[in-house]
Every structure is written in C-alpha cells, then in structure tokens.
Amino acid sequence: MRTQEIEAEKADLENEREFQVKIEAGIRIEPRDWMPDGYRRALIRQISQHAHSEIVGQLPEANWITRAPTLERKLILLAKVQDEAGHGLYLYCAAETLGASRDELTLQLLSGKARYSSIFNYPTLSWADVGAIGWLVDGAAIMNQVPLQRCSYGPYGRAMVRICKEESFHQRQGFDIMRALCEGTKLQREMAQDALDRWWWPALMMFGPPDEQSVHSEQSMAWGIKQSSNDTLRQKFVDQTVPQAEYLGLVIPDDDLQWDDKEGRYNFGPIDWAEFASVLAGNGPCNRERIAARLKAWNDGAWFREGLLAAAHAGGTTEESACGGTAE
Ligand SMILES: [Fe+2]
Ligand SMILES: [Fe+2]
Predict the structure, then answer these.
(1) Which residues fall inside 5 Å of ion ligand 1, going by CB?
(2) Ligand 2 center to 135 CA (angstroms)
(3) Cβ contacts of residue 307 below 8 Å, gap of 6+?
(4) Cβ atoms 203, 234 nearer than 8 A
(5) What is the pTM of this model?
(6) Average pLDDT, stretch 176-192?
(7) What b/e readout covers 132-160, taking b as 16+ CB neighbours within 10 angstroms?
(8) What separation in Å is there between the alpha carbon of 58 and the centre of ligand 1?
(9) How far apart, in Å, are the Cα atoms of 242 and each of 146, 186, 297, 317?
(10) Which residue, among 246, 110, 238, 233, has the nearest Cα to 178 in the 3D structure?
C-alpha cells in the first residue's frame, strides 16, 4: 500500500511537471488532458462566475427594452441582451467540460453561494444608463476578456473569441446612445452625465480588487488562466475611456483625474473598496431583486426542462445532449 501511495505521488508530480511545461510553452490544455485539481477548481469558479455575470447582466438592460426611444434602438438592445444569454450558454458549456453541471452551477447562483459581477447590482434609472452600460460595462468587459482569448484552457479561450467580437458591438452601441444624447438637448446631455456619474466608479471596480489584495491572481497567472493583472487592466480602461468622455463633452466624476506626462497615463482618485465589498456581500441596491428575478425564471422554466428531458428519453437521446452539454 505504501509503495502504491509513493508511486501515485510520483506520477502526480510528473503530471504536474508536464502540465507546467505545456503551460509555459503556450500549449492549450483540453478537457481530457491531465490537470491539477486546483486548476480545474479555479477554472470552474472563474468560468461560472463569468457565465452568471452574463445571465444576471441581462436584467438591468432588459428593464429598458419596452421603453427604448425608437424601434431601431429597441431592436439593437434586444439583440444585445440576447447576445448576453448566448455568452452565458457558451460559458456554462465550457464549465461543463470541466465536470461541473449547469444545474449545479445555477443552484449555486440562486442560493447566493456563487458570485457574479457586482456591477449588475446597480439600478438602471434612465435610458442613458443603457448607453453607459454598453460604453463602460461592456467596454470594461472587453478589456478583461481580450487577454482571456489566450487563456491556457482551450474551451474557455475559444469561447472568448466569439464573445469578444459581440462585446465590441455592445460597446459601440452604448457609445452611440451616449453620442446621440450628448448631441441632443440640455436635458439629454444632463441624463448622459448623470449616467456616467453613477456608472464610472462601479465600472472601475469591475476589474476586481487591487493587485496586492487579489487572492487568486498570482496562481491564476502562473497557470496561464489570467494574462494581465487587475490594476494593469483598470489603468488601460481609464486611459482608453477618458478621451472618449472628452469627445462626448462629458466630465469623468473624479477630481483627482490627471494626465501624467512622465508615466504616459492618467492618474485617478481612490476607489471606494468599502462600497465594492458591501455590494459583493449582498447589500448593493439590487442584489435581492436580481436573484429573485433569476429564481423566478428558474421556477417558471421547470416545465420546459422537464419536457425536454421527457422528449429526450422518448426519442432515445441522452440527457446530456438534450441539455446541450457533455459533462464528463
Ligand atoms: Fe457578454
Ligand atoms: Fe456585452
């Protein structure tokens, strides 16, 4: 027995060494390849949080579909919100290749055990918020997701390629709403400014805690899951977005914001991490409402899931293929 244990330990070490060599050589890890348990767990956590964010993220904007100011804007917003549902589905499928079932992940979301991006716990108070979300929130998502296309785990990286193309359309539609408002009446410009005032700081928080406080960052980077640090991405976002706000004639709500010629970047004021922690802990303005909406959707969809499984059994299809997943 003891010899067997030693042999198993040796095999694990060898597997781990080969795994790290592959990561460093930029060779993708695929579902059937050996991977450390911690790598699998970290990916399931990150991919499912990402999937939940796409799904919960539909709610604040869906709030405005029926009130979009024109038919064209309504069509664009509908397409955008549908894209987010698709993103959620690709990502749940990517998580399924790691052995986590979609039902299990959904139940973690509904029970409050799993997290999603804290930004979706803020309310959309005006049509300008739909513009600000596309411009800033999808803009920040792109900044986060472009490097993830090179993620060491194949299914996640490949899902990101398509997602990023769609996010780029989302960002542009948001900017276009802001542009139209900023070229409009005084009241419309005020709406746009008010939306920027409310979404700016939560958008900066989307990149996660500062590097020195980020618990999972270092290991995630060593495993090639994460390619850039939170602070690096946040800085890139600020540098890219400030000139866009200037173009729109809007003012970023930060008195400390200043171009640093020496460093070639914008310096910005301190982020209220206490607010971030409070929203993450479930006390944001809309946390309860968001989970209640997902719970209602889950319960309302029970008849459909049951019907799908019954049809799959009757037709001889496997449950997995009927649900669109191939959990291993
Ligand atoms: Fe998305
Ligand atoms: Fe998006």
Answers:
(1) 54, 84, 87
(2) 10
(3) none
(4) no
(5) 0.91
(6) 98
(7) bbbbbbbbbbbbbbbbbbebbbbbbbebb
(8) 9
(9) 20, 21, 38, 53
(10) 246
* Position 7 pLDDT exceeds 90: no
Ligand that lies nearest to the alpha carbon of residue 80, given by its number in the listed order: 2
Distance between Cα 246 and ligand 1 center (Å): 26
Residue type, 207: F
Average of per-residue pLDDT values in the chain: 93
Q: Which listed ligand is nearest to 138 at the C-alpha?
A: 2
d(CA 153, CA 167): 21
Query: Tell me, what amino acid is at 143?
Result: M
Q: How far is ligand 1, taken at its centre, from the CA of residue 158, in Å? A: 14
Percent of the chain with pLDDT over 70: 96
Name the CA radius of gyration of the chain, rounded: 22
Distance between CA 179 and CA 249 in Å, rounded? 9
The Å distance, Cα 324 to ligand 1 centre, comes to 19
Separation of 10 CA from ligand 1 center, angstroms?
42
Residues facing residue 258 across a β-bridge = 267
Q: How far is the CA of 87 from the centre of ligand 1 (A)?
A: 5
- Cα–Cα distances in Å, from 66 out to 74, 153, 191? 7, 39, 19
